[in-house]
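seq as requested:
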Amino acid sequence: MQETIAAISTPFGEGAIAVIRLSGPESAAVADRVFRSKRSLADLPARMQQLGTIFDPTGVLDEVLLTVFRAPASYTGEEMVEIACHGGILVTRRILALLLENGARPAGPGEFTQRAFLNGKMDLTQAEAVMDLIRAQTDLGLRAATEQLEGRLGERIRAIREALLNLLAHTEAFIDFPEEDIDPDTGAALQARLDEVARHLALLLETADQGRVLREGLRTVIYGAPNVGKSSLLNRLLGQERAIVSEIPGTTRDTIEEVVNLRGIPVRLVDTAGVREAECAIEREGIARTLRHIERADLVLHVVDASQPRTEPVDPAHLLVLNKIDLGEDASWSGQDGVRISCVEGGGLEPLLGAIFERAMGSSMVGGNCAVAINARHQACLKTAAQFTRAATEALKQGLSAEFIALELRSALDAVGDVVGRVETDDLLGKIFSTFCLGK
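struct tokens:
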């Protein structure tokens, strides 16, 4: 029989209210051993809160509100109990300890959501979206997590899986029952169906970088020579005086990192030491750190002083920021692509934000439409599926027998199924749910 688990589901610390959850067949029985009220839990209607007290051997511990959720109409699909108590650190720990003494065991990280998945309350993409929802740093990240929690990604995966399943079923029927005169559906027709599957896989794979940015942030390095306005740009983007600004070259010796919400994406800004011939060991180390940060950056903002003659090359992979346009632009910068700003007057910041957003999310995302953004695990599965789909296409082009095509289609089907948990393993589930917080 499935064990009954318990955990504190609200963040650690003091608050007005804390929530303790139980899930499993003995949830109500365990709660009934420590809860006293005018109404028995056995008679309490589902989802109706009941006021009562929690008792320990010394007497009344706390006055609480208790709610029973009957299986299968609960978050986990099992019988559940939620206890809303006062939010002190000691009282919540004491109540949890009482529940554990009376038959429950401590829940592991993500175990409530894992049980919801195993009981068919959600697919694996929705389960992963729960943690994305909790960790969302911006409105756009929150919206993407909500869309995934509602099953949008799962729907697209299931549509691809259904297309592959139909292809495989038709191909294997042709192999197994040749006497039935089943149309082999080879040649142009089969190629068209394979191309359609490949197209849908490619569309999802294109969102992997967007998903990583929404979950982890866009690591953006502000780079350039001394006194071009790098620290001033950091302060402008943050909306506060975070970095020291001075006319003395080499003021910034170490890197400064801050996270800011730019148009719905978390951007981790890194202000770096100006790159030049270093005059001392400390400045040399600062410049070395700058170069290491550039190697790891998702985006580099190359800041230059547009009022001065051009003296350095521009890497097309970097986003060029021509600062100090309030002083006039030197003729050597004429026709150069880039974003022209003035950190002193604030001009050009909106186009710069738009350019950063487009670099991070792509031009198709400028309208803020982020319904689906896959994570690294999804990406690995879908890449595998795309690889086997291409192999099936090659087998078809080479005129190989239907058995070879079926073999590749079956492998592609398994890889797609891994995304939503159709082909789950204990190791896979353990790795996914171990990243969850306790109580969820």
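The first strand starts at residue 5 and ends at 8.
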